Amino acid sequence: MTGLAAIGAGLAAIGAGLGIGLIGNKAMEGIARQPEALDGIRGTFILGAALVEGAALIGMILSFLMNS
Amino acid sequence: MRQIVLVFLLFISANTFAQDTTVVNHASSHEVAVEKLDNIYGEVSHTESAEEESPVDVIMNHVADANIYHIATINGKHITFGLPCILWRNNKLSVFSSSRFHHEEVVDGFTLDHHTGKVVDAATGKRSSDLLSYFGATDSSKFIDFSITKNVFTMLLGVLLLTIAFSMVVRSYKRGANVAPKGFQALFEPIFLYIYEDVIKQNLGKKADKYAPYLLSLFFFILIINLIGLIPFFPGGANASGNISFTAVLAICTFLVITLNGNKHYWHHIFAMPGVPKWVLIILTPVEIAGMFVKPFALAMRLFGNITSGHVVILSLVSLIFILGKNGESLGGAFAGSAMAVPFVLFMSALELLVAFLQAYIFTLLSAIFISSAVAEDEHH
């Protein structure tokens, strides 16, 4: 059970990594194309990253609870 | 002014509530998790002496709450800062300082578990119960712990620091509006304005001023608790914002603000989403109702997870010194561990400074967005 929970936490981390990577990718592209839109993009980037990360954290915490 | 006082009162009462639920949380899941983790990693450090604490134990005890502030251990002598214990059992209140446990084993039928730093029942060694199981049971050894624990102490310290800092800012504003800001004013004004303009005003528009006191208090309160938690020595170090009860109370505050201020469009969108076929509502309405609770739940989890994982990572890196050094037996290992750990700890601490700001910002931003979605006037009808 412990191993499975650890794998679950790892999968959650992979998902969040991919998600934040994609957001960062597009944010970078957007900023490179339109540097003057930096302020708006930054806020949206952080918001998107936080939402993605929230899902990963819930997965991590659930796996933590499964562990016990 | 009245609103600010109200919000402060809310936070102070939130502290009491947080402390109360802390008991539930730590008594159940944490304890088991600690034991489990100890079983997995315990052998790393449990070399010869069973009395040595494993790194996982140390980390989990740091991350959890405690009734005593452990500052340092020098030559086996513990240097601690006693915190007031307020315990309720059999309709009797016991109030004493936890530093009394240094020279007395048992005070009023309670003793201190030196391993976890928690007050336990002297006879059974059991921890405090939550309100429900206290009033539900007839077991006379059960008690409720209302103590000023490490986390509550940190919260009170944060409230005190913020009150002092902001009253100084207010004083300097009263002195003259046209004077260039200096001191605390110069420190807080850019942060304050950034949050007010970019987060609150942008999301709430005309209604910004109504919710600004709540959201700004939220931001600065989370920020100061995060920062105090990052101080590695005495007044800091408590993992208050990495405590699920603390974050849950803040999330409940946001939930209440959303629910109590939600206008009819908000409720309309939850119970009968306009513009979708009737049969879709059977699926959509439960999802929307669940969404009402998932939003604050995710808020609480995000803050809790980020701060706790930050503390755990830093402490794991510090533990590397003791693991490689085999608890002081291998000097070379300890040096190798330090060479590895110190730069990483420095890096992680710098990252945690960023995270402390970012999480306070995110919590405020998401609260502002949720509130704005609940109070927004419907424009497209």
Uncertain spans of chain A: none
Would you tell me the overall average pLDDT of chain A? 84
Helix tally of chain A?
Answer: 2
What structural class results from the helix and strand content of chain B?
mainly alpha
- Termini distance of chain B? 37 Å
- In angstroms, what is the radius of gyration of chain A? 15 Å
Task: Walk me through the structure.
The complex is a heterodimer of chains A (68) and B (381). By secondary structure, chain A is an all-alpha fold. Chain A is built from 2 helices and no strands. Chain B has 2 domains: 21-145, no CATH class; 152-380, no CATH class. Chain B is 65% helix and 9% strand. Chain B has 10 helices and 7 strands. Chain B has a 3-stranded antiparallel sheet with strand order 4-3-7. The longest helix of chain B has 47 residues, at 278-324. Chain B is globular and about 70 Å long. At the A-B interface, helix 2 of A face helix 1, helix 9 and helix 10 of B.
Summarize this entry quickly:
With 68 residues, chain A is mainly alpha-helical.
Give the topology, please.
The complex is a heterodimer of chains A (68) and B (381).
Chain A: H1 2-33, H2 38-67
Chain B: H1 2-45, H2 55-63, E1 68-74, E2 77-82, E3 84-89, E4 92-97, E5 110-113, E6 118-121, H3 131-136, E7 144-145, H4 150-175, H5 184-204, H6 208-230, H7 244-261, H8 264-271, H9 278-324, H10 331-375
Antiparallel strand pairs in B: 1-2, 3-4, 3-7, 5-6
Helix pairs in contact in B: 1-2, 1-4, 1-7, 2-9, 4-6, 5-6, 5-10, 6-10, 7-9, 7-10, 9-10
